[in-house]
Amino acid sequence: MATDTVSDAGNVSADEPRYVGDEAELDDIVAENDVVLADFYADWCGPCQMLEPVVENLAADTEAAVAKVDVDANQQLATAYGVRGVPTLVLFAGGEQVEEVVGLQSEDELRSLIEAYAE
């Protein structure tokens, strides 16, 4: 499992997903980036595992910052966003939640969703 490392606060939009430990950390990522895709997942979830390479590609190839939230380790955060099933992907733009999709999505669908809010 990946570990979260301290990164430059001004350059949060990395080429790989950031693992979020709590609501304050997610709030910081949302505040510091124009577009953020939050992936609420669970290690035991098959569709979540299938979505992992898609999310990694989106982090590397789009303007969106990608946050990963383990719902088992962050139950309060998942509850705060009304996550009832995994994977759930929440898109933020301009600091506000603008989209939510549940279930396995194609890379093209997610890329289009991100691009609709980028710029």
From TrEMBL:
<dbReference type="InterPro" id="IPR036249">
    <property type="entry name" value="Thioredoxin-like_sf"/>
</dbReference>
<keyword id="KW-1015">Disulfide bond</keyword>
<dbReference type="InterPro" id="IPR017937">
    <property type="entry name" value="Thioredoxin_CS"/>
</dbReference>
<keyword id="KW-0249">Electron transport</keyword>
<protein>
    <submittedName>
        <fullName>Thioredoxin</fullName>
    </submittedName>
</protein>
<dbReference type="Pfam" id="PF00085">
    <property type="entry name" value="Thioredoxin"/>
</dbReference>
<keyword id="KW-0676">Redox-active center</keyword>
<dbReference type="InterPro" id="IPR013766">
    <property type="entry name" value="Thioredoxin_domain"/>
</dbReference>
<dbReference type="GO" id="GO:0015035">
    <property type="term" value="F:protein-disulfide reductase activity"/>
</dbReference>
<dbReference type="GO" id="GO:0005737">
    <property type="term" value="C:cytoplasm"/>
</dbReference>
<feature type="domain" description="Thioredoxin">
    <location>
        <begin position="3"/>
        <end position="119"/>
    </location>
</feature>
<keyword id="KW-0813">Transport</keyword>
<dbReference type="InterPro" id="IPR005746">
    <property type="entry name" value="Thioredoxin"/>
</dbReference>
